[in-house]
Amino acid sequence: MARIATKGTGVRDQGGFRCVRCDAGTPRWVGRCPECSAWGTVEEVGGRALRSVARGPVRGPARPIREIDASTARARPTGIAEFDRVLGGGLVPGAVVLLAGEPGTGKSTLLLEVAARCATAADPCLVVTGEESAAQVRLRADRVGALHPHLYLAAETDLSALLAHVDAVRPRLLVVDSIQTVASADVEGSPGGVTQVREVASALIAVAQGARDRDGPRRARDEGRCDRGSAGARAPRRRGPALRR
Fold first, then answer.
1. Are 118 and 93 in contact (CB under 8 A)?
2. According to the model, what pLDDT value does residue 43 have?
3. What is d(CA 235, CA 221) in angstroms, rounded to the nearest whole number?
4. Contacts of 226 (CB under 8 A, 6+ apart)
5. Among positive and negative, which fits the CA dihedral 59, 61, 66, 68?
6. Helix spans in the chain (H)
7. Rounded Cα gap, residues 20 and 22, in angstroms
8. Do β-strands 25-26 and 16-19 pair in parallel, antiparallel, or remain unpaired?
9. Cα(142)–Cα(36) distance, rounded to whole angstroms?
10. Fewer Cβ in 10 A, N or C end of the chain?
11. The pLDDT value given to residue 232
12. Is 118 helix (H, G, I), strand (E, B) or coil?
């Protein structure tokens, strides 16, 4: 049974570890007893000081599982069969997907087409490019037929500027091409480094999840299909970034 200590009354015993086979003591845990050489017989004795944790605010009350609306977690097909198959059915609202691959394999072109298919008048999509100019991406969109009046494009490498574009456009889908070129001025390190990539990814995850929680379950007439060929289709708004590496 777990012990519970109230605030300000920590319970502290003489901590340590002891072998249950030969009763030899050791100041820290080891996998093998240094006296009898038995494995897995060293256990902690005594107790550590226990701290009480203050109860914080909850995001929502716990509810019976049958009452949970699962529609917001269902994948929305993009209309590109192979892409949807790899993603397990399509894009999930609030999700962040990292698309990785060798240079020149068509990652940017694929995501540009996905964004064009998902864009609608009510739910625009945003592509932020850090590797190419906006004009270069426009030329690629011309070649692959990915032009859409509600597909927005920006060329940025600063995280704060990228987030400003997100606030202005409020996209259902955000494509960052690529995450290695985006950096935060508040964090040390060069773009593409572990620290910068972690910071940028954390910020984008927070944006995606926050937008999902604010929008709530908005049902689509065709189960959220992004394909422009579905007349009148409109998916619940999602701001799940697709990050290209």
1. no
2. 87
3. 8
4. 76, 77, 78, 79, 90, 91, 114, 117, 118, 173, 233, 235
5. negative
6. 81-86, 107-118, 134-144, 159-169, 194-215
7. 6
8. antiparallel
9. 75
10. N
11. 27
12. helix
What is d(CA 28, CA 26) in angstroms, rounded to the nearest whole number?
6
Q: What predicted TM-score, i.e. pTM, was given to this entire model? A: 0.66
- If you write DSSP's letter for every residue of 137-164 in order, what string do you get? HHHHHHHHT---TTEEEEE--BHHHHHH
> And the tokens for 151?
């597909």
Series of mean pLDDT values for 10-residue runs along the chain (245 residues): 43 66 88 89 74 86 91 87 92 89 91 92 93 94 93 96 94 92 91 92 90 60 43 35 63
Structure tokens at 225: 């299909």
How far apart are the C-alpha atoms of 37 and 21, rounded to whole Å? 10
- Two structure tokens written together for 56: 């914080």
- Structure token digits, residue 200: 């940028």
Which two tokens mark 3? Answer: 């012990």
Q: 19 has which bridge partners? A: 42
